[in-house]
Write a structure and sequence with these properties.
GO terms for molecular function: DNA binding. InterPro entries: Cro/C1-type_HTH (IPR001387), Lambda_DNA-bd_dom_sf (IPR010982). This is HTH cro/C1-type domain-containing protein. It contains 7 helices and 11 strands. It is α+β, with helices and mostly antiparallel strands. Strands 1, 2, 3, 4, 5, 6, 7, 8, 9, 10 and 11 form an 11-stranded mixed sheet that branches. The longest helix is centred in the first third of the chain and has 11 residues, at 5-15.
Length: 252
């Protein structure tokens, strides 16, 4: 029989050799109240999940679904062994950690496959973004803008070349702010994009044309099977966010 969310909470606590009182202190509950949560008398609230993510890197999707690992790789503000975390003013909503020698670790919210549905409604919610798993990339300077990392689902962008963005890859993108959508996208510099569509969800495509007069973009798949993956048009009125892809971590 599959464990419930409340039972997985208990499994997670025991895996850390922590007491109910210790977890209660982290989550702001008395020991008895936390025990009621583990017994299933009380729902595991978002505040509990958020507190355990921040303190113990709890993988919230594992807690909710049982899929994946118990914890996620994240960087805590006290990780001084590799550098001090910084949020440069007027630069970005992503923290950077100074690794020394002119290198920085950029920490970006990761929208994996299991978070796709929730992201469509929570993409502007700061609290929601805080509890997402984190993805890191090494950069040589601070970067302006708002960044997200997305787990790629499907093989529409896989043509078996070095430009492929294969199923399971992590694509990091910089958001194109909506007020810039009336200007032609720099498709000569950034070929591939993650599009957050109101109905189609999160899709990764190459934009082959951007008609600024009509507000229509043409989406192209790298996969040569054009019966399965034909080009199609999207009106920008149907789009919530667009990110130009700046880094791809291919699944090994």
């Amino acid at each position: 029989m599959e464990n419930t969310e409340n039972q997985r909470l208990k499994i997670f606590r025991k895996s850390l050799n922590k007491t109910q009182m210790e977890f209660g202190m982290v989550t702001g509950l008395k020991q008895g109240s936390f025990a009621d949560v583990e017994r299933g008398k009380v729902k595991v609230s978002g505040d509990i999940k958020n507190a355990l993510f921040k303190e113990f890197s709890l993988n919230i999707e594992w807690l909710e679904t049982g899929k994946g690992e118990m914890t996620v790789n994240t960087v805590k503000p006290n990780a001084r062994s590799i550098g001090e975390i910084q949020y440069p003013l007027d630069f970005t909503d992503s923290p950077f950690i100074d690794l020394g020698d002119g290198q920085y670790l950029m920490v970006v919210p990761l929208v994996n496959e299991y978070a796709y549905a929730g992201y469509l409604s929570g993409y502007k919610d700061t609290e929601y973004l805080e509890v997402l798993p984190k993805h890191t990339i090494i950069v040589d300077k601070y970067h302006k803008g708002s960044y997200r990392a997305f787990e790629i689902v499907g093989d529409s962008m896989d043509d078996n070349t070095k430009e492929s963005i294969s199923d399971g890859s992590i694509a990091t993108g910089r958001e194109i702010q909506q007020h810039l959508w009336t200007s032609k996208f720099h498709t000569h510099r950034f070929k591939d994009y993650v599009i957050v569509h109101r109905k189609m969800g999160i899709i990764a495509k190459r934009i082959s044309n951007h008609d600024t007069e009509t507000g229509i973009i043409t989406c192209h798949s790298l996969n040569p099977d054009k019966v399965a993956y034909p080009d199609f048009d999207i009106h920008l009125d149907e789009v919530k966010q667009i990110f130009n892809i700046v880094n791809v971590l291919q699944k090994r």
